[in-house]
């Protein structure tokens, strides 16, 4: 695939083709859309070198999203023999004459657009916009970028994914076409050269991704003091789904710890089977959650993770140290979601409420950069419909490249019956929500936009089978799901063993039941402490096991009949009336299990 060398960098075939088109059709503005991890930086610097050698431009200006990426761009440029200053501030006027140019940020340009305009017009300049969609992060940024670089000689725009926008928020220097999928008046960017995930998979530039979705029952208390329970996969409305999702992400529950343990288990396997420095990334919604998740990571793995926060002056240094070191896991908010290069990162735990297509593509892009032919990436995510839809879109691209082996098992369609439900304001949700508890359970893997469940039938796994996990064509989607379900069961057993050991240790030390235990059996607080730690606790555990068994049986029946998972659940509730499984009593769940057994 390598056909050309520029400077010290080898160019991939797509980069060569894009360069040929760029120079064959000279134009002032050129937009390249390339999947995260494909090598947009290398392409842009190769184009810059040729323009300098042809004396078409005299100066290079790079506009990046973050300060950390300023250094990353400068280091990459140096390997091409291009000297860019990543520290030039707005307090300094002219660019030093012994440099080819400088790297700035969108925020700096917005701070003094006239200064950057003077720099860009003092000499013929090529302006490279890294992730140009940031020019639409606010009218002030877009206006500043337009003012500063409207007179630049050449402009090269880069992005990791096609983006949509409203008519009144056009991104500067980008051409648009009407977007029929976005309704009347919608626009979509028009790239001069595109290189998608499907293309990158075919060329072995990126890793194939396995999306492992985790469900579980969440319980929370609303403003009226009522305890609400819902499964991530069975929430009936968007507001309920949001509350269940938010409760699952609460660090005080069991959901987060279980998913982190699953990722840690996967890292163990990757390190033993070909990626000795494999690392995982945990994405949090805010800094408080990130700190709490870091403590959970240390409890689960026994190793303190890297905690990377935007307000930490050492954040950039920590990213570089983590990328080049051997630590297992880094916990962050948004610091490594875009552009940051950590090639050894092969697992991602999506413990955040972010759900935009652009952020999803950029974050998943952190774990897909391939270094060898037989590497794969695993993304652990909540089984909620906004995320499943985004993952399914990426999965469908993979399926076009690497079709799966034939399988007699039918997959389960993802049905979005929430599309027409109005979404309630976040402030309204906050006012009525108090997290109580959440449990996690492996739900399914995604394949070509369809959910494939595991555990439908007993299966024995040879240890060697795990070597193939995530490599399409070697394991069928059903086998991959079965294997992950099997591993999830082992994790659950170990977690129960740890809890039992901790409880016995507490009794030996004379601490007895904790305050959390005393209210755990009755979230509303009406039960006595004895009831909560005795009969109610036993009943809750029994109900949880019944729910898991019902979910497994529903999965089997859905696979046999070819019907959606939700349709089988709906039929079950009709046959055995009552609330959804997440809120049902143990007695009702037993009746539903008996009904399902009669259908098997």
Model description:
The structure is a single chain. With 600 residues, the protein is α/β, with parallel strands linked by helices. The protein has three domains: 4-195, P-loop containing nucleotide triphosphate hydrolases (Rossmann fold, 3-Layer(aba) Sandwich); 205-493, Rossmann fold (3-Layer(aba) Sandwich), CATH 3.40.50.300; 524-599, no CATH class. 42% of the residues lie in helices and 18% in strands. The chain has 20 helices and 24 strands. Strands 17-18-16-19-20-13-23-24-21 form a nine-stranded mixed β-sheet, sandwiched between helices. It has a seven-stranded parallel β-sheet with strand order 5-6-4-7-8-3-12, with helices on both faces. Strands 9-11-10 form a three-stranded antiparallel β-sheet, with no helix packed on it. Strand 7, helix 6 and strand 8 (154-159) form a beta-alpha-beta unit. Helix 1 packs across helix 2 and helix 9 crosses helix 15 (477-508). The longest helix is centred in the last third of the chain and has 32 residues, at 477-508. The chain starts with a strand and ends with a helix.
Q: Determine the fraction of residues in helical runs and give it as a percent range.
A: 40-55%
Count of discrete alpha- or pi-helical segments spanning 4 or more residues: 20
Give the number of DSSP strands: 24
User: Spans of 5+ residues with little confidence (pLDDT < 50)?
Assistant: 1-8, 398-431, 456-475, 505-539
CATH homologous superfamily caption of the largest domain: P-loop containing nucleotide triphosphate hydrolases
- Identify the CATH architecture of the largest domain: 3-Layer(aba) Sandwich
* Rg (CA only): 26 Å
> Major sheet: order of its strands?
17-18-16-19-20-13-23-24-21
Residue-averaged pLDDT, rounded? 76
Query: What spatial form do the alpha-carbon principal axes imply?
Result: elongated
Beta-strand content: 15-25%
